[in-house]
Design goal:
β7 (about 125) and β8 form a beta hairpin. The chain has helices at about 40, 50-65, 160-175, 215-235, 280-285, 295-300, 305-315, 315-325, 335-350, 360-375, 380-390, 395-400, 410-425, 425-430, 440-450, 455-465, and strands spanning about 1-10, 70-75, 75-80, 90, 100-105, 110-120, 125, 135-140, 145-150, 185-195, 205-210, 240-245, 250-255, 265-270, 275. It has three domains: about 1-285, no CATH class; about 295-400, no CATH class; about 410-465, Arc Repressor Mutant, subunit A, CATH 1.10.10. It is α+β, with helices and mostly antiparallel strands. It contains 16 helices and 15 strands. About 40% of the residues lie in helices and about 20% in strands. The longest helix has 20 residues, at about 215-235. The strands form four sheets. Strands 5-6-9-1-10-11-12-13 form an eight-stranded mixed sheet. Strands 4-3-14 form a three-stranded antiparallel sheet, with no helix packed on it. The two termini are about 55 Å apart. The protein binds adenosine-5'-diphosphate (ADP), magnesium ion and zinc ion (ZN). Adenosine-5'-diphosphate (ADP) binds near residues 5, 6, 192 and 203.
Amino acid sequence: MEPVIGLEVHLALNTKSKMFCACRADTFGLAPNSSTCPVCLGLPGSLPTINRKAVEKALRFSLALHCQVPETTQFHRKNYYYPDAPKNYQISQYDRPLGAGGFLELTSGRRIGITRCHLEEDAGRLVHPAYADYSLVDLNRAGAALIELVTEPDLRTPEEAREFLVRVQAIAQAVEVSDANPEEGKMRADVNISLRRPSEPLGTKVEVKNLNSFKSVQRSLEYEIKRQRRLLEGGGRISQDTLGWDEGGQKTFLLRTKEETADYRYFPEPDLPPLQIDSTWLSQVQKAMPELPEAKRQRYGALGVRDYDASIIAYDVALANFFDAAAAQARNPQAIANWLNGDISGWLNAHNLTISATALTPALLTELVALVDDGTISGKTAKELLPEVMQGAAPSRLVEARGLKQVSDSAEISALVEAVIANNSAIVATIKTNPKAVNALLGQVLRESRGKANPELVRALLNSKLGLG
Ligand code: ADP
Ligand code: MG
Ligand code: ZN
């Protein structure tokens, strides 16, 4: 049976003010309820006004996902009762969203349909003090602008779902609409998942709500696929439930069944007239569109970077900015890409850092690559220097101070090669029948030079002195 997955993703817009009032939107670290006003507190008589910047950002994001933008969009009230929603409704969008019918392409070339992309306001937050028999309400986040995007049920594996989210994040950051940072709650996802036999109609789905990391999206999908498969293969039926994800237990749990699903009684927001999006405005937004990751990937390809590397770098905004600065000075962009996707990303993972949080600069990396390219140091030496270069040390200084320059003086190496040949007659004797044995000699010469002999030169000298091809 094949998994069928659809995602609903919320992105917190990085606007200065909230969606329908002038309150500061980024309230991280502020005292509770300090960024509020009658509008976002839902006081009677207050009136919302549409944040033009938020609409522009949502338009830009919709266009980046190839959505159609209608001439008129409309806000609706989604009615529900919960202590974090002071108005007892959320202003959202319903049948006239700001974008619809787009797609996002995965590395495989598969296009995942974007059903819709709309604007809405965020809710506040409940705070549960330890051991208290009450909860507190913080409305700083209430009324902040969100984009919600909904996909078609086009995803087929947890890995695809993860890649989709990585790409959404990269696009949101590249077009500067959201920090899209799950750790800070700036990107949250609900996953919908069902199983079916290929080419049969869709099966009954469940929805897992409010996942705040890419890892929990992947894990919860893996968990549900196993659970649903076991149930269906045992002759059972899936009930269309809304689930939560238990991070500690790494399992889903029931939040509510379909029978309890709320009827939101959507109706057009009476305090906001339909919003016209004329073609002049839309083309201005299109013109101001920053370079998209997909365009970056193609540009890197044209520089001679392998597609695999180009794709990874282009879909990571921090890496892409770094690569652009380094490649501008480098003779060999592929070498820069190799470092970024190889040893540097290993170092970053081990230290749990992003590249912008390190002392590594594009100039330092370019310098390191040039030292290898012109034969001053071996690739091995360069790798050994990396941890210090990551902390801001200039590679050429390290090479100078430690005498790490590769020896390419053939007289010096020649003497070393001859000594190694003379001292290893047993190995030399086997080389006729086993040409690979020459590598043992090569290794020994490199060791005795303490890694400074140029390996290519050593191999050439060994071959000529031993009369090998
Ligand atoms: P609901 O009415 O439960 O909100 P929607 O039709 O609005 O369902 O779809 C919500 C999300 O669920 C979308 O991302 C959609 O692609 C996905 N979805 C719909 N049906 C299925 C299914 N049978 N299996 C997996 N995902 C589905
Ligand atoms: Mg829905
Ligand atoms: Zn406000």
